[in-house]
Design goal:
The protein is α/β, with parallel strands linked by helices. The protein is built from twelve helices and nine strands. It folds into two domains: about 130 residues, Serine Threonine Protein Phosphatase 5, Tetratricopeptide repeat (Alpha Horseshoe), CATH 1.25.40; about 140 residues, 3-Layer(aba) Sandwich (Rossmann fold).
Length: about 325
């Protein structure tokens, strides 16, 4: 028989008959559980929860969708979709040692108004419903805090999306390329979000407000990669997938995939409709800058208009006054 796992810490749960809410003996968290008795579905829930705990929100969301399709009345499947939509990860509070939610996918959409949240409440029993409402209230509070902080951030023109370090912790070639592109775009006068510099003086808890503000305000994203797996890295994909969703609502946004040392066909399927750029080609950065300038029109200084005043020959007094006025103007008076 499949054993349900804790969606906070991954520990095995002791579930009694007809339970819809239980407490994990390892992390002490009270949580809702699925009511399905199908072992295959229980195993699917476990896989989805593990992916979500690893911040693989898109992959987890696909599994929760399958669970909803299999049983539209499973409250926990709808709640799983909510956790993926808002990128919820439960981390241990160092003071209370309790698992508290953190949000990695801020949205202007309210969790309270979300259809899956409404479905979760509809399908839940009274005990489950109380837990869902309590959790939703906390997630909503966190969302509002992040939105308030992000509103204080300056708007960006370009967002550079890339993988900073490899599995061994060494700096990637992508980060070197991103650094060069950052400084070239800066010289062109663009306001650029580049995590290595933009977030260097920020605490980890302040990352999401900055990232959300940059994703929301930037008109162009450069998704940089030298290996197919780098495009699929958890936090890299988290950024470009969010930007793609924003593009559906805002047609003025543009994502430009930039690749090197790989074939264009190795890019993520989600990029199939986009015009990619080969970073190995001569003049790559010039092509990118041109593309950006087509989307972002910088305000050019308006030329000073010279007012020409026609004076009739018979009005010498007016002509004299005008000459004096132009002299004063030239003197800046």
């Amino acid at each position: 028989m499949a054993v349900l796992k804790c969606k906070m810490c991954g520990g095995a749960l002791e579930v009694m008959e007809r339970m819809t809410v239980c407490e994990c003996e390892y992390c002490g968290t009270q949580q809702t559980i699925t009511t399905t008795k199908d072992e295959n579905m229980q195993a699917l829930f476990n896989r989805a929860n593990i992916l979500r705990m690893k911040s693989e929100f898109d992959k987890a969301e696909q599994l929760y969708e399958k669970l909803v399709q299999n049983n539209p009345d499973d409250a926990e499947a709808h709640w799983g979709l909510i956790l993926c939509k808002f990128g919820i990860e439960y981390v241990e509070d160092p003071q209370s040692f309790k698992r508290i939610p953190t949000c990695h996918r801020t949205s202007f959409d309210s969790i309270i108004a979300d259809e899956d949240y409404k479905e979760a409440l509809r399908c839940a029993d009274s005990v489950q419903r109380e837990v869902y409402q309590r959790e939703a209230k906390e997630i909503d509070r966190i969302q509002k805090e992040i939105l308030a902080l992000s509103a204080k951030e300056e708007p960006y023109d370009v967002f550079i999306c890339y993988k900073e370090t490899d599995d061994s912790g060494s700096r990637t070639q992508d980060s070197v390329i991103a650094n060069d592109i950052y400084y070239q775009l800066k010289t062109e006068g663009f306001k650029v979000f580049y995590a290595a510099i933009t977030l260097e003086d920020k605490l980890g808890s302040a990352y999401e407000p900055c990232i959300f503000a940059a994703l929301n305000s930037a008109k162009v994203m450069l998704a940089i990669g030298t290996k197919p797996e780098y495009f699929g890295a958890v936090w890299v994909k988290n950024e470009w997938s969010r930007f793609l969703k924003m593009m559906k609502k805002d047609r003025t946004k543009l994502l430009i995939p930039c690749y090197k040392n790989m074939d264009a066909y190795e890019l993520p399927e989600e990029f199939a409709h986009l015009q990619a750029q080969d970073m190995g080609k001569i003049g790559f950065i010039n092509d990118v800058v041109r593309g950006i300038k087509k989307v972002i029109v910088k305000d050019e200084p308006k030329p000073v208009q010279t007012v020409v005043k026609q004076v009739t020959a018979g009005n010498a007094n007016v002509e004299s006054l005008l000459k004096k006025a132009f002299i004063f103007l030239e003197d800046g008076d």
